[in-house]
Amino acid sequence: MKGFWxxxxxxxxxxxxxxxxxxxxxxxxxxxxxxLISLVPEANKIQDALNAYSRAQQLTGPDRSLSFVTxxxxxxxxxxxxxPPDVSRVYTRSELRSAVRDVADINILxxxxxxxxxxxxxxxxxxxxxxxxxxxxxxxxxxxxxxxxNLVSSPVSRTFLSNAISPQIHKLDIKRIxxxxxxxxxxxxxxxxxxxxxxxxxxxxxxxxxxVSQKVVDELFRSIQRSYDYDLTSLxxxxxxxxxxxxxxxxxxxxxxxxxxxxxxxxxxxxxxxxAERLAKELSEAKEKIEEKVRERTxxxxxxxxxxxxxxxxxxxxxxxxxxxxxxxxxxxxxxRFLEVGDAHDEKVVEALSSKFSSCTPQKCIESCNAKKPLSxxxxxxxxxxxxxSSTCLFSGTSxxxxxxxxxxxxxxTDTKLLERSKNEFIAIASHEMRTPLAIIRGYAETVGExxxxxxxxxxxxxxxxxxxxxxxxxxxxVNNFLDLTRLENKKxxxxxxxxxxxxxxxxxENDFREQAKEKNIQLIVKIPKQKLPFINADKAMxxxxxxxxxxxxxxxxxxxxxxxxxxxxxxxxxxxxxxTGIGISPKQQLTLFQKFQSLGRFSERxxxxxxxxxxxxxxxxxxxxxxxxxxxxxxxxxxxFKVFVPIAT
Length: 650
What we know:
- By secondary structure, this protein is an alpha+beta fold.
- The protein folds into 5 domains: 1-117, no CATH class; 119-242, no CATH class; 314-412, PAS domain (Beta-Lactamase, 2-Layer Sandwich), CATH 3.30.450; 417-489; 498-647, 2-Layer Sandwich (Heat Shock Protein 90).
- The chain is built from 22 helices and 12 strands.
- Strand 3 (378-381) and strand 4 form a beta hairpin.
- Helix 2 (47-58) runs antiparallel to helix 3 (61-80).
- The longest helix is centred in the middle third of the chain and has 44 residues, at 270-313.
- It is rod-shaped and about 175 Å long.
């Protein structure tokens, strides 16, 4: 008797003796198995499949074919039931078989493996014919081929198998099924083979008895079960006659029944699942739109980043960005040029900054930020160049204002400083050169005036001489202001702090202006507390100049009324207020009152006004002594109140 698999070759028109085709089939099977193995990164997880594949390579004939099938199904079941990283990607069974068709020519595979890739109806016909062929062989070997032919000819002639089974009975021409004018459905195939199995089994049972018949069918079932998956094995069990392999049938059909009941039990969930799928699709589409917007925004941000980077790299000022731990994140070209490090790595940049500018190290900058006191206008002279440093502290926009970095700015102010020095030198030289002749003019004018006053009675001549003297004094005052300003701004004035009674300076100022008060018919009032005042710590000459400037301004801009100097104790300081009843100061002028070249006369109806340096110099002087000055109040046409604070001596 021929073996079950010995006659299967040739079902698709492939001859049994075509060795070239046989070896081509093996090559395609190898391609398939190797492809499936490549989808599993860790080979130790598919050891059973690898063992079956190894056996297939060592075997021949039907056993070789079965081992290939076993290896294939073992790999397929592993891949479709796993997810990454166990497999390279997720596959459904149909997707995986489609991928296999792309890497191998299934048309020349051995029939046992090719069966897997056929359509449902073709697959059912070929697979179920395997069992029929086994029983055909058994009956033919015992009772002759004519017996089998007579047995099945009449029933087969009434089905789609009439043209598909060759005259020798033992072969099935699947092309005739595939190319039939009317497509053969899978359920029709199953029904026809169920009747054919019943016919063959009853004949075999009648001729050889129950035990032998059961053994033939059982051997067939075991062969199929070892090589094929659950779906095909259960298909074979379904077409067997009642009473044959009842236990096996119960096992497989119970599983099918359980699956059916699960489907029925979950049928009510179908709409929910469909809704969920629809929502998932909508969410997916929304996600794609959002991602597209994110991509567009990312491109925009990248362009803006390029622009900002270009601007930052090409600024004239140096910029160094540090994180909260002092690590350098960015240094532009100017900063690297100032530090003389070129394209050196970040550590060299930090080392150069710390060594060349010890007062502006990253650590000091971060400490100042943590103390909420960022570096501001730190000037460093390296001998060759002069730099100005400042820092910007970076805090999160959240409520806790968490510090996360600092930006150090470096300005090369060498040229600006040179210009300032040239200007200061010019002012100093010009002022010194002007002061001498002006002093001579003043002396001559005073002498001539004295002589004219005693010998001449012409009022007009005396008036002219008074004008010479007045304007000379005025010019000399402007020159002195320029000289004072230059020395103050360059910190070339020495401050001589000492302890003394403020009443002493106030009394001197009162005496200085007593005559002017009489001439303008303005009342000069000095208010000093009756109790002894504590000594102040100040420079006498500077404080006197401060009070002279303030009281002088009060008289200049007051036509009637009074000028009051009020001394009191406020906290740890002596407060000196200069109060007038003059023209007052406009709100606009108050904004720039203590800046350079801001003369009160420029904003009044007076045609004469000073250099605009008086209050600016006054502020510099009082601040050099550790005090402060402010405009306490002012109202146009009603007067102003200036307040000076001077520290009490400890």
